[in-house]
Amino acid sequence: MSKGAETRQVILERAFEIASVIGLSGVTIGRLAEETGLSKSGLFAHFGSKEALDVAIVEEAARQFVQEVMVPALREPRGEPRVRALFERWTAWGERPGGCFFVGAGAELDDRPGPSRDALVRACKDWVDELAKAARIAAREGHFTASLDPEQFAFELYGIMLSFHQFHRFLRDPATRVRAHHAFDRLVASARASAPALPARAR
Amino acid sequence: MSKGAETRQVILERAFEIASVIGLSGVTIGRLAEETGLSKSGLFAHFGSKEALDVAIVEEAARQFVQEVMVPALREPRGEPRVRALFERWTAWGERPGGCFFVGAGAELDDRPGPSRDALVRACKDWVDELAKAARIAAREGHFTASLDPEQFAFELYGIMLSFHQFHRFLRDPATRVRAHHAFDRLVASARASAPALPARAR
DNA sequence: TGACAAATAGCACGGTCGTACTATCTTGAT
DNA sequence: ATCAAGATAGTACGACCGTGCTATTTGTCA
Fold this sequence. Notes:
2 copies of one chain form a homodimer.
Chain A: H1 3-22, H2 29-36, H3 40-44, H4 50-74, H5 80-94, H6 101-109, H7 115-140, H8 150-170, H9 176-192
Helix pairs in contact in A: 1-2, 1-4, 1-6, 4-5, 4-7, 5-7, 5-8, 6-7, 7-8, 8-9
Chain A binds a DNA duplex (30 and 30 nucleotides) through helix 1, helix 2 and helix 3.
């Protein structure tokens, strides 16, 4: 790796840490330069614009997420174990300092169109697809019911993860971990059941 | 209402709108002054500091939330209908321009201690408590199983709401509304069941 | 090792931020 | 109608933002 690419990587790792804690807009050129020991202009030259820096941070986040969550989980056996591993890895990722980068950045960018939002949406969609795919495989393997709606499963699993994040990082509820695991077990149990367990809607 | 309190209210309503869309830190004194037709200093005098303005915005958000979500839902009959009304009102609230203020602000402030974070946490906890209380009442009324854990119910319901927000506002998934309602129906159905439907954990 | 390219620093600019301080206008009670 | 109190405007300040331009240092390869 050339010298330039090397420092660029160092910059991005630090930028990702900061962005996880105080958000993407909290990553300022001046501050980042100070923390990496570079000059403002020296650092700036690596990216050319703040927008490009933001995109690079999102890509760095996606890279780390794949490496620390997806890859290890996909090494687990197909089916329910893999689904469980995805969940476990995700909650561990969400307990890093600053919490899950994507949760924070998602809230920050949801109304700000642009390349960084696009990159972030792409990463999140990939993640949702991965969850749905794992559920689909679990159904095919016979761990989950064949009538399972994998996208619906992913939607609800995502909700548990977001709730985990909210209660853990924001409300600082000490019961959060137990609650999240309980919710996950309930979700998996209902996915196992052969009947979809959806009686006629009340009212 | 005196003149001062009147303009203060006008300011806060506009500030709340902006904060819902671009976040609390997106509400700048200059911009807010421009949009309300006041001078920077004239506006500033109403609050004394940015921090105090932030707190006031959070309180305004809580006020509107109570008025538009809580109060109407609490007029519904006790039990499941009220739980359902809380959910319906909340999703409607989350479809306002900018989405749910509390979701955005929560992600923004989760690592920034201070009075605004405190105010926000208080409002969110009140909301969670309200959800749990409604579930507890539904159990007492016989709509839900007596063995229901109301706090767990609130945790999972909150997750559905957060997932709704994420898929709707950020990922712009057109199936979101259906997914959220489906998830809600499943949650309510399992709360109705007499058995807790929680088999021994796999693995 | 010398030369060319890449990487980094220095400096300046216009803009916006939050916040003082002071002056002017409005309101409301007497 | 008066006059203090309250509400609003004017202006200025230092800090930091992103970004351009020009040196200077450092790395790389013939």
